[in-house]
Amino acid sequence: MTGRRRLGDWYAYLFIGPSLLGVVAFLLLPVVIVFALSLFRWELLSAPVFVGLDNYTRLAGDGEAWHSLWVTILYVLLCIPLQTVLALALALMLDRRIKGVRILRSLFVIPWMATPIVMGLVWDWIFDPRDGALNRALDLVGVTGPDWLSDPAWALPAVALVNVWQHTGYTMLFFLAGLQGIPKELYDASSTDGATPAQRFWKITLPLLNPTMFFVTVTNLIGAFQAFDTIFVMTDGGPGGGTDVINFRIFGTAFREFDFGYASTLSMLLFAVILLVTLAQVRFFGRRTTYDLS
Amino acid sequence: MTTPLRRTVLYAALAAGAFVSVFPYLLVVLTAFKTRRQLSTTEPWLPGLPPSTANLAEILGGDFPRFLLNTVVMTALLTLGQLVFTTFAAYAFARLRFRGRDVLFWLYVATMMVPSAVTVIPLFLIMRELEAVNTWYGLLAPYILGTPYGIFLMRQFFKSLPGGLEEAARIDGAGPLTILFRILLPLCRPAIGTLAIITVISSWNSFLWPLIITSGDETKVVTVAISALKVGIGVDRGLMMAGGLIALAPMVAIFIFFQKYIVRSVVLTGLK
What we know:
The complex is a heterodimer. Chain A is mainly α. Chain A has one domain: MetI-like (MetI-like fold, Orthogonal Bundle). Chain A is globular. Chain A has a two-stranded antiparallel sheet with strand order 1-2. Chain A has helices spanning 2-37, 54-60, 63-94, 101-109, 116-126, 133-140, 155-180, 184-192, 197-208, 210-225, 229-234, 246-255, 260-287, and strands at residues 40-41, 49-50. Chain A starts with a helix and ends in a 7-residue tail after the last helix. The model of chain A has no long low-confidence stretch (mean pLDDT 89). By secondary structure, chain B is mostly helical. Chain B folds into two domains: 1-52, no CATH class; 63-268, Orthogonal Bundle (MetI-like fold), CATH 1.10.3720. Chain B contains 15 helices and no strands. Chain B has helices at residues 4-32, 36-41, 54-61, 64-95, 101-111, 116-129, 136-144, 148-160, 165-171, 176-187, 189-205, 208-213, 222-228, 237-257, 259-268. At the A-B interface, α1, α3, α4, α5 and α6 of A face α1, α4, α5, α6 and α7 of B.
């Protein structure tokens, strides 16, 4: 029996071996390295110099880095509430048997597979002040549109809009699946009790969508905090640092200024922020009860 | 219940939303087939007549086909690796008993929390130590051994299969490999299809890692090549959109033919 068990063990280790190598070498080791490097000064050409917490002291007084963090938070706040509400509204509209519902669902999901680099360039052109589709359309109704991506007030909302455009439809799919999991009897019972549609939404639909809401906000937030591709091709962090999100600053510090130690410190900052936000969501959603209907 | 007026408003809202969803794709197609003159004389949302293939010819006449081939090779290898290694690992975690299983699985789940933005710098430095910068090895290695997220999804699916499936085969003396290939894998086709589609899309669209780890033409992929079109004086929108059209077309084709697998990726997360 034990011999057989041993053999089974070896099979299992063989099966998970390659993926375990990947997890250790390319996920765990990098986390260790990025933490260690945040304590060094290293420009790649000479040997790394241990500087203790110097990079963190520098970070504390680095106005540009905090500005980047602030821009990132604004970007997330522009993206997540809007795309979550839009996705939920779309799901509610499409969770019924109306003509063309399947095609409509497909059309809403199609932005999700777009190559972000390509769509960054497309939206860059839509936002072009003179020849872009948006300002041309505004011209038709007699409005002169701003120079979207060069205007400090508009650049960040503009790049955030691209993210909303890309992710709303796919998020809607999760809400649709969630809506279809809500037992219809609950709605029937509430109708007999004389509940209004608004009451039904707030008292039944939304609480029962809690697990879905948790999943989509956690994954979308983690994604939005790491925004990079569209900003790289649309604004290059500009105008005047207006779209200089933290991931973009990390990239620039490491691969344009070759300051790998400080870039690692910035990475630690991003890691900490994402962890904190995720933990806050776990607590927030954990406290609100979902009804166990099984 | 639904009045004609409400119905009209509903359809109008949905149609407007659908138009916004599709418009950027439309713009890619329209612009890719415009000459430079048509580009400056027509509205962006109108076609240039007659359509011109000059942009496509120009971009396909350069190094672009080579970068396209690189993207195809990268996507194929990453998807193959992900499917093979993820399936084996997920099978072991879901259906085999072995010492350390739960600890290892929690380790995997924990690493799902590590943002890719945080690992980019150390991965680059690891590849630099291994002298793998600007090589195929460096481009592929970090993502070819399967991702914790994929393993998590596949494990969920393996666990959802009835427990008695393997019993009869095991009594007949079948080993884990036979059980996996003869009994479980045929039942896993929907999950494997979904994992394949997700991996194809994310590999094809990937940008930051290829941008950092490759610099020469031998390993340059389409996304990096397209992003370079914006640099320099006098941005040629027609040429950029022609490149974009070539990059997007396979993804749209996948979407049209394998849509149900994409919808299933939502169900696979176990949220209903």
